[in-house]
């Protein structure tokens, strides 16, 4: 199966800041070539050349290299320490979410956090008539069999979610989102806290400033020129 990152290289977490997540995913699905049509050798070479030129193609090339997280955002060691307090704390901060997403890319499991983000966006839907197209996009992208970014769900959860697609509610993906959340919390999150990039953030504390030492004045012979010594005997 072709790497999902190569299918949708234009997708990233920052895209959700500019427009709703489901619109981004929907447009990407439309742009995906039909599976039956196989590109020729020349077309494959051109596509590979374009992908290699994209900076995001190289983001996860080196697993565990220190500095991968620090290049994406300026994070203080104090802020990084808070990420280790709980998984909720990590995901609640933009820099933490971005760092964790990049870590998952090195493990080729970024579909989990992308699904979680899509569900968070879905639950914020205000208009009822937008629920169906959003739910359909999420289901076709992450849940249905052989979906381009299929997440790991048990049979019961997948069936319950599938049955609610006729009249989706804001709670339609709650069970599936909870399953993926627990998977990340119990499996990926501990590895993230042990990863070299995260540990490098913790060790980036600036060295303590040395206390200021007052420089003593050095006297010279010229300091005493013209000064008559006092030999008064008391």
UniProtKB/TrEMBL annotation:
PANTHER family on file: REGULATOR OF G PROTEIN SIGNALING, REGULATOR OF G-PROTEIN SIGNALING 18
Protein name (database record): RGS18 protein
Keyword Cytoplasm among record annotations: no
Pfam families, alphabetized: RGS
PROSITE patterns for the chain: RGS
Source species, domain of life: Eukaryota
Keyword Ribonucleoprotein: no
Residues of the RGS domain: 86-202
Species assigned in the record: Peucedramus taeniatus
Gene Ontology terms: biological process: negative regulation of signal transduction
UniProt entry keywords in alphabetical sequence: Signal transduction inhibitor
């Amino acid at each position: 199966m072709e790497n999902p990152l190569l299918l949708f290289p234009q997708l990233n977490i920052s895209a959700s800041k500019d427009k709703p997540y489901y619109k981004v995913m929907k447009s990407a699905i439309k742009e995906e070539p039909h599976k039956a049509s196989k590109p020729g050798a020349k077309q494959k070479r051109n596509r590979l050349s374009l992908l290699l030129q994209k900076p995001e193609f190289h983001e996860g090339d080196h697993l565990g290299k220190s500095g991968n997280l620090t290049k994406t955002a300026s994070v203080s060691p104090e802020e990084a320490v808070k990420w280790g307090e709980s998984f909720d704390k990590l995901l609640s901060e933009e820099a933490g979410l971005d760092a964790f997403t990049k870590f998952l890319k090195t493990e080729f499991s970024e579909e989990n956090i992308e699904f979680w983000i899509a569900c968070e966006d879905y639950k914020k839907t205000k208009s009822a008539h937008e629920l169906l197209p959003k739910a359909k996009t999420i289901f076709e992208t992450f849940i249905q069999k052989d979906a381009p970014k299929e997440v790991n769900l048990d049979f019961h959860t997948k069936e319950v979610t599938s049955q609610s697609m006729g009249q989706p509610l804001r709670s339609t993906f709650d069970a599936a989102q909870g399953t993926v959340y627990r998977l990340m919390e119990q499996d990926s999150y501990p590895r993230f806290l042990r990863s070299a990039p995260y540990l490098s953030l913790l060790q980036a504390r600036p060295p303590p400033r040395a206390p200021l030492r007052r420089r003593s004045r050095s006297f010279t012979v010229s300091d005493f020129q013209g000064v008559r010594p006092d030999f008064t005997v008391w």
